[in-house]
Amino acid sequence: MRSMRSTGWAQSPARTRITAAAVTAAAVTCALTLAGCGSNSGGGAGGSDGAVTLGIVELNLSNPFFGTLEKATESAAKAKGWKVMKAEAKTPGDSATQVTAVENMINNKVKAIVLNPANPTALVNVVKKARDKGILVVTVNTNLTPIDAADGTFATDNVAAGKLIGQWAAASAPSSPRIGMLDFDLSDGAAGGRHNGFLEGYGIDVKSPLVAGTALTKGTVDTGQSAMENLLSAHPDINTVYTINEPTAHGAYTAIKNKGLAGKVSLVSVDGACTGVEDVKAGIIGATAMQFPSRMGQQAVEAVAAYLKDGTKPKSGLTDTGTVLITDKPVAGVESQTSAWGLENCWGTK
């Protein structure tokens, strides 16, 4: 994504996308007012008085990653004097609410939309409808499928993130490595990218005899713990664990600790939340790949500004917003920063 955090640990991407029932259009309409359920001063929401209105469609904001991303996007837009029209998915994977949100934004004639899609394909048709109306649509955090269904994407290169932790894990591996992989739905772009990147960085494929077993999680602490318990029951010799995100890693560590294996199993992950970096500092996670959600929102707004100025569209496809490996156990040949640096640059509650 994909993290499952509310206070401390909550939901995440791979920032999870789990199919959920749609909410009513009326509830969505309330969520779509400018800066809340209030009236739009002056002109229509699209800016009939000459003002610019930017639509922001996020995933569930109980997740601090998405909250950080939305705040950065809104702040960058307001710094330019724009109005904003916001909506969020109510639960992970709630694409139905997002579709209704985009339709409302089209009707309100917003100039552009910054979208964090709950599903890579479910938003494609409504995004096409918006673009056909001359509305610029850029995605953040994750892309649509195909990626050029949006005008541009500002996100982590998840393959590169996975490759970093795979390289670190390979360089840190014991003499007889046995790998467990705690994934999220691999049709999800972030999940699939991280999974494949880890294997590439490690220098193996999923059929390698080094891979003891794999399991799907929902990207949460609880599912990370239960999946790790199951893997350890079937493969008690696992000593290296790839996790889709830091909440999953935190849950997996609980299972490892309960088995008396703390210090004997190395965990790697992706996110860079302050809670995850604290786990690196505490020795719970060996290495994590830090993402930068604020950059995603800020760069998306700059792309919208360029388009509104002279019609210049962003680069088609992915614009990588960067990844940094965080570990207190650096290895030769893999550039990294310490947990101290990570705590200065992390996102979420410190």
Structural domains: how many: 2
CATH top-level class of the largest domain: Alpha Beta
Largest sheet: 6 strands, parallel
Helical element count? 11
Q: Look at the structure and give the mean pLDDT.
A: 88
Concise account of the structure shown:
The protein has 350 residues and is α/β, with parallel strands linked by helices. The protein is built from eleven helices and 14 strands.
Descriptive account of the structure:
The chain has 350 residues and is of the alpha/beta class. It folds into two domains: 4-156 and 293-320, Response regulator (Rossmann fold, 3-Layer(aba) Sandwich), CATH 3.40.50.2300; 158-291 and 323-345, Response regulator (Rossmann fold, 3-Layer(aba) Sandwich), CATH 3.40.50. It is 38% helix and 18% strand. The protein is built from eleven helices and 14 strands. It has helices at 25-31, 64-79, 95-107, 124-132, 158-171, 189-202, 221-234, 246-258, 274-281, 293-310, 339-345; strands spanning 4-7, 9-11, 53-58, 83-88, 112-115, 136-140, 152-155, 179-183, 211-216, 240-243, 266-271, 287-290, 318-320, 324-327. It has a six-stranded parallel beta sheet, with helices on both faces. A six-stranded mixed beta sheet has the order 9-8-10-11-12-14, sandwiched between helices. The longest helix is centred in the last third of the chain and has 18 residues, at 293-310.
